């Protein structure tokens, strides 16, 4: 394998966590408080449980506090709103993360928009989404969603100047696709978002200098979708049956890594690419929130 082509998310995330740890120490010294993230998890979705556990472990490793609020799947929306209200008012809590997806009887938008925007570590509140969309100076007053921020920081490590590059984003979610497009527009990229209803998805993707795949379909992006020399960021984390070990599973991305490696100039692996960056960006957002709350 051509190691030079790998964008090492693990290493870039570890560097970002080290930078964030320095901010945590300074915050403790300056304000005699510990930056604190409240994590709200409803139900027992195994993938969500793993994400939440990893987020908690990493936060503690860099000296932050984490308050867990694990609730039964049947929790009433009013009870969840009451919890968020309490967290908003609690001066110890600097960042609030409500793990998605929420059960279908709960209005996720109502829950997200009940979070105080200055504690919105995920950057999902409508006010922060608006600020991210407007860009410019308002980027200093918002929080950028962690996965696209992680992808963006990895791209910045791989390319000196993103200006004028054509980025094709596969997927139009509020968590990844849309905020990713805004970040790249802010860098003066030409941005195309393709999705499940796009007619000529392969042809459009083949024109890209940068491909960000965020659809949740294992190994969808093949070699002939990618222009020679393109940079490929794979957001997909899909658990599939292991091809060689019956009864076992493995994680694969939305990109057929083994095929695409030969044409891409740089590519993120799965695991070890976007995943660690998402968590590092959550910790960064939480500490930035804590600092902003003191100003
Ligand atoms: N579910 C999948 N990704 C995310 C994320 O970045 N934040 C939250 N809160 N839930 C998610």
Please tally the β strands and state the result. 10
Q: What profile does the largest beta sheet have? A: 5 strands, parallel
Query: What percentage of the residues does DSSP assign to strands (E)?
Result: 15-25%
Question: How is the largest sheet built, in terms of strand order?
Answer: 5-4-6-7-10
| Distinct small molecules bound, one entry per kind | guanine
State the domain count.
2
Give the CA-based shape: globular
How would you explain this protein's 3D organization?
By secondary structure, the protein is an alpha/beta fold. Helices cover 40% and strands 16% of the residues. The protein has two domains: 85 residues, Rossmann fold, CATH 3.40.50.10860; 130 residues, Rossmann fold (3-Layer(aba) Sandwich). The chain contains ten helices and ten strands. Strand 4, helix 7 and strand 5 form a beta-alpha-beta unit. Helix 1 packs parallel to helix 10, helix 2 packs across helix 10 and helix 6 crosses helix 7. The longest helix is centred in the N-terminal third of the chain and has 23 residues. It is globular, with a radius of gyration of 19 Å. The site of guanine (GUN) has 9 residues, from strand 3 and helix 6. Guanine binds next to strand 3 and helix 6.
Compact description:
The N and C termini lie far apart (49 Å).
Q: What's the structural blueprint in terms of helices and strands?
A:
Elements: H1 9-31, E1 36-42, H2 46-61, E2 65-71, H3 77-89, E3 95-98, H4 108-112, H5 126-134, H6 146-158, E4 166-170, H7 177-186, E5 190-194, H8 201-205, E6 210-213, E7 231-234, E8 238-241, E9 249-252, H9 257-260, E10 266-267, H10 274-293
Parallel strand pairs: 1-2, 1-3, 4-5, 4-6, 6-7, 7-10
Antiparallel strand pairs: 8-9
The structure holds guanine.
Guanine binds at residues 97-100, 122, 146-147, 175, 278.
């Amino acid at each position: 394998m051509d190691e030079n082509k790998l964008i090492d998310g693990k290493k870039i995330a570890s560097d970002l966590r080290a930078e964030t740890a320095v901010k945590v120490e300074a915050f403790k010294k300056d304000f005699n408080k510990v930056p604190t993230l409240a994590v709200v998890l409803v139900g027992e979705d195994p993938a969500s449980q793993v994400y939440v556990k990893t987020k908690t472990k990493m936060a503690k490793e860099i000296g932050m506090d984490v308050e867990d609020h694990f609730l039964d799947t049947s929790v009433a929306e009013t009870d969840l709103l009451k919890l968020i209200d309490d967290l908003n008012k609690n001066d110890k809590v600097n960042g609030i993360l409500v793990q998605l997806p929420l059960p279908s009887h709960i209005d996720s938008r109502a829950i997200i928009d009940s979070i105080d925007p200055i504690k919105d570590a995920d950057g999902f509140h409508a006010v922060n989404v608006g600020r991210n969309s407007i860009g410019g100076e308002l980027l200093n007053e918002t929080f950028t969603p962690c996965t696209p921020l992680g992808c963006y920081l990895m791209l910045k490590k791989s390319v000196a100047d993103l200006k004028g590059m054509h980025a094709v984003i596969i997927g139009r979610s509020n968590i990844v696709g849309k905020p990713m497009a805004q970040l790249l527009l802010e860098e003066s990229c030409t941005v195309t978002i393709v999705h499940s209803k796009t007619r000529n998805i392969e042809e459009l993707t083949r024109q890209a200098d940068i491909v960000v795949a965020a659809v949740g379909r294992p190994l969808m992006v093949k070699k002939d979708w990618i222009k020679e020399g393109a940079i490929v960021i794979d957001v997909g984390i899909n658990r599939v049956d292991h091809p060689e070990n019956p009864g076992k599973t493995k994680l694969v991305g939305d990109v057929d890594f083994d095929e695409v490696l030969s044409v891409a100039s740089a590519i993120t692996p799965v695991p070890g690419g976007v995943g660690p960056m998402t968590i590092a960006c959550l910790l960064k957002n939480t500490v930035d929130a804590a600092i902003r709350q003191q100003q």
